[in-house]
Amino acid sequence: EPEKYFEEKPHLKQVLDGMKDAGKRLIFVSNPTPTSSYLQLSLSQTNSNSPFWYCDAGMNYVVGPDWRDQWDVVITSAGKPAFYTEDNRPFREVDIGTGKLKFRQVLKLEKGRVYTAGCLKELTQCINWSHPLSSSSDQDDIPYDDIYSPLTSPNVMYVGDSLFADLVDAKREFGWTTAAVTPEVGWEIELQRKTEFRVAGKAIEMLLNSLRLYQRQLGTGLRSKEDLEVMDKMERLVSSWRDEQTRLLGNSFGSVFRARYQPSLFAHSLRRYCDLYMSNVGSLRHYSPQHRFYPESPKLLSHEIRGSNPGKNVNACRGNESRFLPKKHMSGQI
Questions:
Q1: What pLDDT band is residue 151 in, cutting at 50, 70 and 90?
Q2: 74: buried, middle or exposed (CB in 10 Å: 19+, 13-18, 0-12)?
Q3: pTM of the model
Q4: Cβ atoms within 10 Å, residue 125
Q5: CA 153, CA 299: separation in Å to the nearest integer?
Q6: Are residues 241 and 207 in contact, defined by beta-carbon separation less than 8 angstroms?
Q7: Which DSSP symbol is given to 243?
Q8: d(CA 142, CA 109)
Q9: Contacts of 42 (CB under 8 A, 6+ apart)
């Protein structure tokens, strides 16, 4: 009864087929932890977490029995992060029928077969991908021991659902283009479309703008007791509306992208280490495999967002008044 353990991803096969039709090379790499059963990627991206029997069960249910044909390389139980950090871990082939390992040396990774363990260096030596600057026609030539390796460049897009376990190293160590699958994006977009949430956001914006204008009118002198009381009351109203937004999110912790109303560590890391983020892999169906994404302006400081006050030379800007502007995002609800 796979439906008890796996989520249906009706658009996943469409995305994979589109990638293959566009000439993309797809590599499947998984970790040896079958207990990590939240299949946000439906076990079909480069960082699913299971041995072969688990991957096979999930992919058979989500994509179909011929799922291995869509991948140029299938690697299960890779043992990340050692897969990326070590350089002396050889590959072993998995017997598809029994799930047991074959005791023979692997010198070439072939489509349709399943492998385990290994490392990135072995991967570059066991696949026949042409060097971008090489004019050699010798398929056995392996020109990957330099910075021009096709697996250490932005031409590789790594799709994963674990920001700190996978995507950070993929971006920092190899400079790959990274795409994070973050289901909270879809939930929050749906919530932000609701009237109650929009009203709360407008109320907060109006109150904060009123506080700024009020202080501008008061000038640079000392505030009276009445002035401070007015500001205190307005700030309490802002807090109450923010509490309402948290309540609408349906959990006591609020948004994963916010620490109260500031960008959270997760949000900052998402911006820093991920080129794309989406609610699910099916979101890619809305774009051509050759689509180019252009990010929003990465402004995080107040002086970059609002500029200086009109008519005044104001150099003091509060860092905690910055706004989180996402780089590039995709939602399944587009």
A1: low
A2: buried
A3: 0.72
A4: 15
A5: 26
A6: yes
A7: H
A8: 14
A9: 6, 7, 9, 12, 48, 58, 59, 62, 63, 281
